[in-house]
Design goal:
By secondary structure, the protein is mainly alpha-helical. Helices cover 67% and strands 3% of the residues. It has six helices and two strands, in the order ααββαααα. The protein has helices at 3-10, 14-22, 40-54, 59-70, 76-110, 120-126; strands at 29-30, 36-37. A two-stranded antiparallel ribbon has the order 1-2. α3 (40-54) packs across α4.
Length: 129
């Protein structure tokens, strides 16, 4: 199957698929005319990568996860460690977003929002840390 079909079936744009091939995450066969020929196994890997990236795993972590997936002698503890580290990063990002939200909500609340030029939002943004 060609890259357009692989993209449609995997949910990834051809540009992303080419990138994954370029960095060695997938290696589709080549037809005599040089076109890529994606197998069902390639599609499965692409779907795996799409899902892993959607969960926020880095490209390097995806490489590790794919390696673990294909290694039948893997320890599930290795997979759990990668996933746990990602969950910690997500929790940290959520905490940072909650703090940003609190700060912005306070600034909005402090702003009169009227015709006067003074604005606590702009004053806060202008402060040096």
């Amino acid at each position: 199957m060609n890259i357009s079909d692989a993209g449609a079936r995997s949910g990834l744009p051809p540009k992303t698929i080419r990138f994954y091939e370029e960095i060695g995450l997938i290696t589709p066969a080549r037809l005599p005319n040089g076109y890529r020929d994606f197998s069902d196994e390639d599609l499965h890997k692409l779907a795996f990568l799409r899902r892993a990236r959607a969960l926020g795993f880095s490209v390097q972590e995806c490489r590790q996860l794919l390696g673990l997936y294909t290694d039948q002698s893997r320890a599930s503890a290795d997979v759990k460690a990668l996933a746990s580290a990602q969950l910690e990063r997500i929790d940290q990002q959520l905490a940072e977003l909650q703090e940003m939200r609190r700060t912005l909500a306070q600034l909005i609340s402090a702003c009169a929002g009227d015709a006067r030029p003074d604005c606590p939002i702009l004053s806060d943004l202008a402060q040096e840390e």
